[in-house]
Amino acid sequence: MASTLLRCDQPLPAGLTPSPGHEHHPPRPPVPASDPRLALDVAATQAAGSIASSIASSIESSIGGGGDKEADDLFSLKPIEALQLLSASVELLVRITGDVPPTPPLATPPTDTQMSDMQVEKDKIARSHSEKSLAKLRMQALREDEESDERRRRQQQQQQQQHSNGHLSNSNSTAATTAIDGVRLKHEPVQFQDPPPAAGQAPEPYIIVGSDSQPINVQHGAITRRFYSRNEPPISVNQYLLRLHQFCPMSTAVYLAASLYIHRLAVQERAIPVTRRNAHRLVLAGLRVAMKALEDLSYSHSKVAKVGGVSEVELARLEINFCFLAGFELVVGEKALREHWELLRCGGSQRRVDELEMEKLSQMLGRVTERP
């Protein structure tokens, strides 16, 4: 009788039972690394998992509070932890500020949009020059110089007249006796001609170029309007920062410096309120400027614009306006970064914001009580 050969991975026909000495072996498990498509998917999943695990570990370490020496060392701070501190501080400012509309533009904008709106607002505002104005100080100094020159000139004229009157008799006596080749010479007193007085002349115009050329409030309003968007972005600040960190990872110093810039503008100087409609552009501009100010190398302009969701022209405008808004005080040292880091860790920003909220509430109550 012919024997039938069966493979190990095939099921047994009906009516046949395996012998005691025969064992059934299952097939080998698949190897995903052999498939290129599956390998790409696994790599992407591992990258996303590593980012999520690092964020979770940083949150747990910040909540639990570490007694390690690394927890108190600024140089051992990971970039993702600095990113979380930046996100928390910006979200806190947004929550406290609420929705503040930007400075309203002109009702009838001019045809020329190249800085002409600022010129129109400048013409409408009545500027009062104080006594400490440079032009008035210059005019006063010119008047004092002219008066002192006039007094000095009069004194010189009086001295010259006295000197000429004293030697007049001696010159007349010597004129009769002094002769050259039989010709007697007559000594005449020297007459000094006074220079024409300059008191009646108008002083030259003193042109001031700089602080008096444009009102500060007009310039400040035009700068802050650049950061506002028409509608509230659909993505939160935390998700926006994670997107920037995923495609354009930056160092710890850049994240802390950007947080320091925004904290200085919003809390200390109160130059601009941080709201849902301008927080994303403020963060993008702050990170871009901090990267250029502190790092030797930076990402290309086009890449940062694509990741940030703005055009290249808009990103350039945001950088320029952020520099003017910060007063070009962009270089920060280790001491400033450490103080700001300790402020964020200890909850000092929360206390500062609470103080601002209480002051705002007291101002509102004062306005309410002043009403009749």
What does this structure look like?
The protein is mostly helical and 372 residues long. It contains 13 helices and two strands; from the N terminus they run αααααββαααααααα. It has helices at 36-64, 79-97, 116-124, 134-166, 168-177, 216-224, 237-247, 252-268, 279-294, 301-308, 312-325, 334-345, 348-370, and strands at residues 179-180, 183-184. A two-stranded antiparallel sheet has the order 1-2. A hairpin with a 2-residue loop joins β1 (179-180) and β2. Mean pLDDT is 72; it is low at 1-6, 62-67, 106-114, 126-131 and 364-372.
The gyration radius over C-alpha positions equals 41 Å
Number of helices: 13
With strands numbered from the N-terminus, the spatial order across the biggest sheet is 1-2
Question: What is the CATH class of the domain at 75-99 and 236-366?
Answer: Mainly Alpha
Strand composition percent: under 5%
How confident overall, as mean pLDDT? 72
Unreliable runs: 1-6, 62-67, 106-114, 126-131, 364-372
Helix content: 55-70%
Topology, number of strands: 2
Helix-strand makeup class = mainly alpha
One letter per element, helices H and strands E, the order comes to HHHHHEEHHHHHHHH
Q: What is the name of the CATH architecture of the domain at 75-99 and 236-366? A: Orthogonal Bundle
- The CATH superfamily of the domain at 75-99 and 236-366 bears the name Cyclin-like
CATH topology term of the domain at 75-99 and 236-366: Cyclin A, domain 1
Shape: elongated
**Gap between N and C termini:** 117 Å
Tell me the major beta sheet: 2 strands, antiparallel
Organism: Escovopsis weberi
GO molecular function: cyclin-dependent protein serine/threonine kinase regulator activity; protein kinase binding
Pfam families: Cyclin
Protein name: PHO85 cyclin-7
